[in-house]
Write a structure and sequence with these properties.
Elements: H1 2-31, H2 35-45, H3 56-80, H4 84-104, H5 113-121, H6 129-152, H7 160-176, H8 182-203, H9 207-229, H10 236-247, H11 260-273, H12 287-294, H13 299-319, H14 326-335, H15 341-366, H16 372-389, H17 394-401, H18 403-412, H19 418-442, H20 447-471, H21 478-501, H22 512-524, H23 535-553
Helix pairs in contact: 1-2, 1-6, 1-16, 2-6, 2-18, 3-5, 3-6, 4-5, 4-12, 4-13, 5-14, 7-8, 7-9, 7-10, 8-9, 8-21, 9-11, 10-11, 13-14, 13-19, 14-19, 15-17, 15-19, 16-17, 16-18, 20-21, 20-22, 20-23, 21-22
Keywords: Cell membrane, Membrane, Transmembrane, Transmembrane helix
GO cellular component, one term: plasma membrane
Main location: membrane
Length: about 550
Amino acid sequence: MQWLIALVRARWHLGLRAALSIGLPMVIGVLIGRPDWGALASMGGLAGVYGGDTPRRHRIRLVGAVGLAMAIIVPVSSLCAHVTWVSVLYVGLVAGGASFCCLALRVPPPREYLIVLAALVTTGMPSNLGGALRVCGLVAAGVVISIGVTIAIGPRDSLTPAVDRAWSAVGDLLRTAGTPEAGGARSRAVATFAHLRDALWQAGAGPDELRSPAAAEIVFMAAISASIDARGPLDAATWEPTFNDLRAGKLTPPNPQAQPGLRAAFAAAAGVLRPDVEVAELEKIGVVELLREARHSAAFPAAARIGVSVAIGAALGHSLGLAHAYWVALTVAAVLLGTNLTVVVRRTWHRIAGTIVGVGIAAAIFSTHPASLTVALVALAAQFVAELVMPFVYAVGVSLITFIPMALYHLANPGSDIGTALGARLLDTLIGAALAVVLRFVLWPKATAARLPQVQAATLRAITDLLRGRWLTPTHLDPLRRDVHRRWVALHNVTQDVAADQFRGDQRPDEITPALDELAILSLGVPFGRPKPQPEDVEALLKEFDRIADSLQDGAP
């Protein structure tokens, strides 16, 4: 029971925001006597699911961007619905394009799925130009509702949780220094500071909001060095009181008994916390820059795979004469959200089991011949609970989510045979799940592994640039450290996907990524007070790093 209470406390605002964004348009449509309008408006409300617990400013921008895409994609989909091959081609392009943008911009789940859902659903609602304009207006109304809900519900622009996690990660670094847990603490700290930088960018942090993160990063660099150099646990009495004061924003002189590097870092961090000291502005990464970089990453083949697979799923549904052909493609899109083969197979079984249970739940509800308002309210409640449990037990979330498209179908087509639709949903899910697994094996199965050397090369070049800026051509190091953080996270994500894509007999040891991991951490933690190496030694080392990066880029390490 305690874990359930903790779950609700942690995610209630996510569930409520998603439920109201999708459910309110349906309820309003029923109340004004146009449930079909409410169903269409709820497609715009799907945008309200995006943003998670990110700072409100970023959340509003993301919901607005997704909503704008919905308001364009959905009516165009209804126009394309008159010609099957045009519709199939269109949904494939939408799926591929949305997937690429979401992967490049690091949009978390549901990623492109809800955009694809909206496009696929309206392939079954052909309309003329006037009808498409009406659809556009209804979807836009749903987007407006979702933006209003997003503004009202959820965390503000507070950075306190992200900053607290960063300070805690630094504390763990110092507490585990000289112990077997030190390596894991270093990796977690690097990942935590990478996430902190994302949060600062999302919130548009100002100078005062940057003071504590800047102080934490100064101590973080020294803590990494202390963690690497320590031959035994550090004496907590020499560093912990000063550390806790800095974390609380208090300017306390460091303990003379502390490690020299930590003493220097504590003094520098205290200086940053002074209100009369100017803090460097946060350098931001533009959307265009992220999209341009993603062209050469694993995002491109992954997006192409999803686009082609969704188009094949839609074409198969039409060729089999299925009444709801788009449900096959929708299942394909859901399953292929998994970034590697292991996750795809797991999601397939969860999707099948959850759909079977969900169809049973929907059949039980519709057997009572509920009023339209009841259907809308049940869909709202189902979305709320699903948002709570989906990240933890995917099958349970699917069982609840299954009711929502059935509710939309019922509201948009009040006189339809819902029993036939339920049976079709189950059959289409089985076909789509099987197709998704087959296509994951067939379409560019080694694409991620093929790009791993390029990701490794980019990581090594970022490390080289940081070391060059520190030792040879002194410059502002913050953007260089940011780049190492970003490349390090990308390297770990790609490496994990490559390992999960391999069968047990095909697995090969990767000796490069662990070396880059240690080198990245070392580059971020060059200690205070240590003499700089001789320039000629640095030149020789960095020249060798450049040679290795070139070899990796060319595929011949």
